[in-house]
Amino acid sequence: MTGKRNADGWVNLSKLPRVLGRLAAAALLAGMLSSPAVWAGPPGSEPPASGVERSEVPAGNEISNWIQSIHRASREHSYSGTFVVSSASGAMASSRIWHATDGTVQIERIEALDGTPRTVYRRDDLVRTFLPHAQIVKEERREMPGLFPHLPQAESDAVLRHYRAQFMGRDRVAGQEAAIVWLKPKDALRFGYRIWTARASGLVVKLQTLGMQGQVLEQAAFSQIDFDAPPTVAQLMAQMDDTRGFRLLTVPLAKTTVREAGWQMRQAAAGFLPGDCYKRKVAPVPDTARMPPLQCIFSDGLATVSVFFEPYDAARHAQQPKRMDMGATQALALRMAHGDTWLTAVGEVPQETLRLLVDQIEPVR
């Protein structure tokens, strides 16, 4: 599902960080990645650590400091690089990324090197997707995680609550000496992560999403990264604002909350709590006419699930629930119990977690 456009013409922003985290486009359920292959080790065994030896589990304050250092690194360093995303199904995609910061403003450009040409810019909450083949620039305003990687959005207390952290040793990625930390889930309701952070900069240079048996569901890694001649904020802002020759289409979204949108959770499920919601405004432009009216984000502090609400349409929607296994990304779509709403949950979590989450969602009474 890496950066492709779905049938409704949306660009899947949840995969932009790891090719073009997290905020999905909606009806994205067809033609995605197939079921993941299982790591060839014995059932239940732990994945190898790329030739390095494991050591003791770090203390809680060490993990907090580690996460804080990743936050700082994403704010302090400008760079350019190439990164590659691969899935257990064999799918692979690569992109070129430019990241610039002046200590206050952060701006990123991601250019897809595979498939349909597209370039995505993000500056604060403004996202512009350039589609040269259609001569269109799609613009939307929403708060988004950093495009690559998603880990800087992690909350240290949530990580410690839901994951066990284990230092796995050291490795070398894209010419960078890196330390490896394995975040192993404490239950079967979330996937694990193995993270390589560069010793010199603190940036995440490689990230693996691990399944229940320790299999690698998806991997994103820099194959090359350059700190010596980074872009400037002014350079990327000028590129982002240059829409000559393109038709600018604004995606009509308004920020709201789960409750304001008319929904609530009976109780928290698997530690996932409601966050921001984005509601389609009344008069959408033609290119977004089939965009679901409401998207809400749920998170356990690290993993994120997007839930989309739209009116049930018998001509487009199935009678029975539909599940999709797309490697690290899982999707569940169903008609809600009261019958007039079609709900789609998408996230890098097991199917059981999606079911637990959607079962707790109900209309505000």
Describe the structure.
The chain is mainly β. The chain contains 4 helices and 21 strands. The chain has helices at residues 60-76, 156-162, 233-241, 351-359; strands at residues 79-87, 92-101, 106-112, 119-123, 126-131, 136-141, 163-173, 176-185, 192-198, 204-210, 216-226, 247-250, 253-257, 263-265, 273-280, 294-299, 304-311, 322-326, 329-335, 341-347, 361-363. It has a 12-stranded mixed β-sheet. It has a 7-stranded antiparallel β-sheet with strand order 13-15-16-17-20-19-18, covered by helices on one side. It has a two-stranded antiparallel sheet with strand order 14-21. The longest helix is centred in the first third of the chain and has 17 residues, at 60-76. It is globular, with a radius of gyration of 20 Å. The relative contact order is 0.17. Mean pLDDT is 79; it is low at 1-57 and 283-289.
